[in-house]
Structures are given as C-alpha cells and as structure tokens.
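Appendix B. Chain record.
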Amino acid sequence: MRRFTGTITQRGQVTVPAEVRRLLNVSAGDQIEFLVEDGQVTLAHPEFTLETVFGSVQPWWQPEDIDEAIRDAKEEHRQERLRRRGHRG
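Structure tokens predicted for this chain:
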C-alpha cells in the first residue's frame, strides 16, 4: 500500500495529490466519492448511473412547439407508409 498526503484548507477543501488524481482519472471540477467504513476513508471515482447524470446534459434538440413537432412526425410517418405502398404522394 502506498500513502499520499493532502492538505485541508480552512474552507474544508482537500488537495488531492497529482498521482492520486491520475489513478482515479479525475481532474479539476470532477467529483470524487468519500467512502467511509469502519473508521477508514477511501476515495473513489463516482459510478455514473441514470440518476447521477440526469439533467447534466442538455438535449441537442428541443422543439419550440411540441404540437408542430407531433404534426411533422405524423406527416413524415404518413409519407413513409405511402412510399412503402408504392405511392408517390
């Protein structure tokens, strides 16, 4: 086991040594987990689940008018059905 030393600031922030950051594959702004068990604390890279990342990425497209988007989708579907039937409509 290797030991590394960090520093806690007056604001409670911890400096994580560069080698530990590399091992965890984290950088400035990333989150880390503090796992506490039987008086021991372990640092870990958080697991990503749908719940933990929900809302962190904005949709690439959001219709201004949902009713218009529904009408457009229905029309595209109708055109596709006609095309498959051999119509040129």
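Further analysis of this model is presented in Appendix C.
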